[in-house]
Amino acid sequence: MNRLDRLLPDGWQGRSREARWRRSRARRVLAAGVAAGAVLVGWNALAPRASATRSITVAIHDLPAGHVLTRADLTTAQWPESVQLPGAITARAAAGQALTAPVGHGEPVTRSRVRAARTWPGASAGQVLVGVPVSNPTVAAVTRPGDHVDVFAGGKTSPIGTDLLVISTTRHAAGATDRSPLVGAGGAESPPALLVACSVQTAARLAQATQLTPGGDKNIFLALHPAP
């Protein structure tokens, strides 16, 4: 009996038929285990490895163009490193930006699909901005963003717009101008104009008055509210 046989259980030692059968069976089981391990190692070596990925920002639901993004609109998804995604943006950076085009559920949000959202201090939700050319340059010259005005047209005694917030001005007083890029650069020859915030209904009345009143801006007058 060799030294290895002495390590076997008593029932496995010796030259009896039963002991030899047990040792033979153990060898077959061991050989099968070794073969199975070799197959598993080979399979793992041949199996394709998972591609490397990175986290990107995607829309959590369908979003329309012009929508101002919030963190609730965004989530993260895994994107293959091998596939380029120019302009990738984090959810933190995207929040507060406005979409330049519709984005579908699960689509990546990139820098080319967002722009800075414009906000106008003092303007209320649902209001629109309207350019108003005016014919009394004296009042227009002293009007500043943040002031409130009433607008009259065509000699009517009732204003077509009341307590309208002035967002920006184009004025010409003593050769000086204070122009907003949204109003336009007119130089000394351009009529004074204001950009005001108002309701859609008031905007329609202002547009109609400008179109139908003879002389256009020559018949649009302002009444400036005194500062509180």
Automatic annotation (TrEMBL):
SMART domains, alphabetically? SAF
Give all residue intervals belonging to the SAF domain: 54-115
**Origin: domain of life:** Bacteria
The record's section on Pfam families has: SAF
Q: Which UniProt keywords apply?
A: Membrane, Transmembrane, Transmembrane helix
Membrane spanning residue stretches: 29-46
Question: Under which name does UniProt file this protein?
Answer: SAF domain-containing protein
